[in-house]
Design brief:
Length: 529
């Protein structure tokens, strides 16, 4: 396997922010390659690294706020999932501009005479139609979403953003030059009317309009994996950014009809503005060359060293040795031979999935692997040439720890197996003692209010889930596929799954995740997070 440095796809914005997108598995590589074509991105050799992986994070695991940035995308080969991965990666990139005051608005971007305007509105209001009706010399740069970033001189610059709905249901798709930007002159919030008219919006109204527009693209910031406190901090950052934008850029309520010349109202509003000089921040020149393949190659990050491969671990099969989403340090064996006890990384050809398991036995040329948390060995036997490398370390946040292999690794594996058997036996005993838990569950009524059980609905723009908390401690989550709750010990002794809301509550909350509906809370512990 090559160990030389491979070029990575990069993205740059007008405020100087940039990232290198480093895929760590084949599906992630495909997503980065797709999004690079759609957003017309170019290779980059500098800037912070964003590691892109496919898989699921461990439920209830606290989100790390420091260390390497990791973006986990849903796995799967269905065409709709592929589009969702691009959309989610683009959203993750946009959200990383928030600390610097960037916002992704649900609005079309148009430009005339070097000045940009955003036509913002909920879906179905007519912003795409209005964008298409603009006559020359107006230029439509995007018809669905726009990213705005401060220009460092009191103004803002606007970047066009893809319309992901154009890729669904065999749509025409498209390409957007996301790294292109124009100075933002005004925000127009659309509504339908009999006549065309633009009226100034007060700062308070503009903040509300901007915040709602942001929620229509990125969702209400109560995503899975975030505590209510983290979601509250995100809301504060969002409102602060929306307030700064409303104070810097004039906002208008634009009433439009289907047959009028609403652009005259826009031009009249722009003509009444006092002239201002905006600083133009020119993005760095792109590095020549193609995007290249970056998966399972050294991207030259300097995080682990030359020849080392970054791989993001997902799933439960290696718990507690590894926890999703650990960033793994993988080193090719080269001339060395794998030994029993090593944690190795290999590619499962049938699914294209990168798997991280431990070698439990070597019989001649055949290598048997098994996850530390799996009850049985893997059915597929490997050969030395199938292995991409040995896992020697894992990094989570700012903490890096060694992953043991060889004789020590075999001892660790055996200890894990014993612990698993003990845990399973204890689980059987506790399940048989279930009827006796009525006493402990009745005592739960006397817990302080801050420690009482509560079910929180966590939402993103695309999906939602129910999770159980005792105070701030994660206690379990609802599995809609199985239609049952998974509650951890000892919390299972304090609450019964029969007392908790299920699929009906999940369906009831799900329609409320749209931004126009706002937050909603149910009286029995089913509140929104």
């Amino acid at each position: 396997m090559p160990a030389d440095s491979a070029p990575c796809t990069g993205i740059r914005f007008a405020n100087g922010q940039q990232w290198r997108l480093i895929p760590t598995d084949p599906l992630a590589e495909e997503t980065v390659r797709d999004i690079a074509e759609v957003m017309q991105l170019s290779p980059a050799t500098g800037g912070p690294d964003l590691y892109v992986a496919t898989g699921w994070s461990t439920p209830g695991k606290p989100k790390e706020t420091a260390g390497p940035e990791i973006c986990l995308l849903p796995p799967g080969n269905h065409g709709e999932v592929r589009i969702n991965r691009m959309s989610e990666l683009a959203k993750a990139i946009a959200l990383r501009t928030l600390p610097a005051g960037g916002l992704l608005l649900h609005g079309a971007l148009a430009e005339k005479d070097g000045r940009g305007v955003i036509l913002a509105a909920p879906g179905g209001t007519g912003k795409t139609t209005a964008s298409n009706r603009l006559p020359l010399p107006w230029r439509s740069l995007s018809d669905d979403a726009t990213l705005v970033v401060p220009d460092g001189n009191g103004g803002y610059r606007a970047h066009p953003w893809p319309t992901w709905s154009r890729f669904r249901d065999h749509g025409p798709g498209g390409r957007w030059n996301v790294e292109e930007s124009v100075p933002l002159a005004a925000l127009f919030f659309l509504s339908r009317a009999e006549d065309d008219r633009a009226e100034p919006a007060g700062t308070g109204d503009a903040v509300a309009y901007i915040t709602e527009s942001v929620h229509q693209t990125t969702g209400i910031p109560s995503q899975p994996g975030r505590t209510p406190e983290e979601a509250a901090r995100h809301c504060e950052e969002e409102i602060a950014a929306a307030t700064a934008l409303a104070r810097a850029i004039p906002a208008y309520r634009l009433e439009i009809c289907l047959t009028g010349t609403f652009w005259d109202a826009i031009e009249n509003a722009l003509a009444r503005q006092a002239p201002r000089r905006a600083k133009v921040t020119v993005p760095p020149e792109p590095v020549p060359g193609g995007t290249g393949r970056a998966v399972l190659r050294d991207p030259g990050t300097g995080l682990f060293g030359p020849g080392h491969i970054p791989v993001v671990y997902t799933g439960p099969s290696m718990n507690p040795t590894l926890v999703s989403p650990d960033l793994l340090d993988v080193v090719p064996y080269g001339e060395a031979a794998p030994v029993a006890g090593d944690v190795v990384c290999f590619l499962r050809e049938a699914t294209g999935q990168v798997v991280v398991h431990r070698i439990v036995r070597i019989a001649g040329a055949r290598i048997v692997t098994q996850g530390d948390n799996n009850p049985e060995p893997d059915p597929d036997l490997l050969q030395a040439g199938d292995i991409l490398g040995k896992v020697i370390g894992a990094r989570r946040g700012e903490t890096r720890r060694a992953v043991t292999g060889g004789i020590t690794g075999r001892a660790v594996f055996r200890c894990r197996r014993i612990a698993t058997r003990v845990r399973n036996a204890a689980g059987i005993l506790l399940r048989s003692a279930g009827p006796a838990w009525g006493i402990t569950r009745s005592l739960a009524r006397f817990l302080p209010a801050c420690l009482k059980p509560r079910v929180v609905f966590f939402a993103t723009w695309n999906y939602g889930t129910l999770r159980l908390y005792f105070g701030r401690s994660f206690a379990g989550d609802y599995d809609p596929a199985r239609g049952s709750w998974k509650i951890r010990l000892p919390y299972r002794m304090l609450v019964s799954a029969d007392e908790l809301p299920g699929i009906d509550e999940l369906k009831r909350c799900a329609p409320a995740r749209g931004p126009a509906a706002g937050d909603r809370a149910a009286p029995l512990p089913a509140e929104r997070g």
